Amino acid sequence: MTAPTTTSRKRGRWIDQWDPEDETFWEEKGEKVANRNLTFSIISEHIGFSIWTLWSVLVLFMGPEYGIDPAGKFFLVAVATLVGSIVRVPYTFAVARFGGRNWTIIAASMLLLPTIAAFIVMEPGTSYTTFMLVAMLTGVGGGNFASSMTNINSFFPLRKKGWALGLNAGGGNIGVPVVQLVALAVIATVGAGQPRVLLTIYMPLIAVSAIFAALFMDNLAPVKNDTGAAKESVKDPHTWIMSFLYIGTFGSFIGYSFAFGLVLQTQFGRTPLQAASVTFIGPLLGSLIRPVGGWLADRYGGGRITLWNFAAMGVATSFVIMASMQKSLPLFLVGFIVLFVLTGVGNGSTYKMIPGIYHAKAVALGLTGEEAGAYGRRLGGAAIGLIGAVGAVGGLGINLAFRQSFLTAGTGTGAFVAFLAFYVVCFVVTWAVYLRRTPSRTQVVAGQGQQVSERPQPAFAEV
User: Which of 54, 68, 125, 417 sees the fewest Cβ atoms within 10 Å?
Assistant: First the structure.
């Protein structure tokens, strides 16, 4: 058992030795340190999500005097989603380059840039191009997720990753409904014409999150950027399959989070206050349930939970389509909120699958013990950033689909039909790749002439 040795080098607190798979080390030293870093990682990621989704509420403040139609507003939130997806790749590698603690300080501080920029330009008469550029700046908040998840993934043993990653991501995701609740409070108290009040609230919170990271987080020296692992993960088909599935879960969560308020205003004629009063409910429940999705995946296997979750998402989407066609706001809200909850469960279960898949591959290669664990952590850690980046692009697709649906038909029904078809494909892919049993095979035992039938086994059922 090796104790975590903290040193002061590279202008930050560094732990030189870290072995979470050693149970004695974990119980005596590791768990306390890992949980402390998890706590303050959640705080930073929480603020990051709030800033990333800032324009989902700022558009509610943009009345007719701004001269921007619903299609233009959907495009504003779409570009914020796109940039947040792209920057996740470099943010993933930044953890090993600068250290998890050090990069969290930098990433948290960078959130001041889009917040101050929005404070300056948020008024009627500002050009649409300026609004679009400022919305793009909020993408740095989306990058926080990738670096935070990569960092926390290194702190915890495989048996704890589902819960830890789910808690980290869920706590971060709650930043979405919180910024929507704060916006609701601002609109209810000072009116829809005062968006700068919302921005003023978040500026000191950003500073506090950076200070907390500096005071209470650590860097792990053993975590290195492994370009070989990155190249291997890019070539591995499972990386792209999981990216596709993550589009269906997290892409749906972030896309719906950005679009929910606009859909209520555009399709059901809700005022900014009326929209803001319910917009937060879906993201809040979806965020809170994410750790449960990770826990269920730890207990029953991520593949199984993900499969049936996609089936449930299909049913919920069908319900939303029916409510949309009947123009029933109560039914629409119920169906949409249930859909949010299911995206949260799927977020937790899919992220649990990633390290499990690569560990299963290590076992299939004949590796055991720490050797198998190291292989799984190496490729799993490299894949997490890419999967998170590609998955977030789903949010862009959802907002563009809504934009096109409202432009052509004046309703979001067509977009929901497309989402339903996508969830069906996700269900089939999950079953075919991770749960489909292989055909029974008969082998002849060498030298004995006996035929032995192998029982069919799902290759990745336990991930």
Answer: 125
pLDDT the model gives residue 445: 44
What's the whole-number average pLDDT of the chain? Answer: 88
The domain of 225 spans 17-432
Q: Is residue 459 part of a domain?
A: no
DSSP label at 410?
S
Does any domain span residue 338?
yes
Let me know if residue 263 belongs to a domain.
yes
Among 60, 45, 419, smallest CA distance to 255 is for: 419
- Is residue 382's pLDDT more than 50? yes
What angle do helix axes 272-279 and 175-190 make, rounded to 10 degrees?
Answer: 150
Q: SS3 sequence, 2-23?
A: CCCCEEEECCEEEECCCCCCCH
439 found inside a domain: no
The whole-angstrom separation of Cα 411 and Cα 405 is: 6
Q: How many CB atoms lie within 10 A of CB 375?
A: 18
The number of folded domains in the chain is 1
Q: Which of 292, 307, 251, 255 is nearest to 166 (CA)?
A: 292
CATH code (residue 36): 1.20.1250.20
Tens of pLDDT, residue by residue over 10-44, are 455 899 989 898 889 999 999 999 999 999 999 99
Q: Are 127 and 31 in contact (CB under 8 A)?
A: no
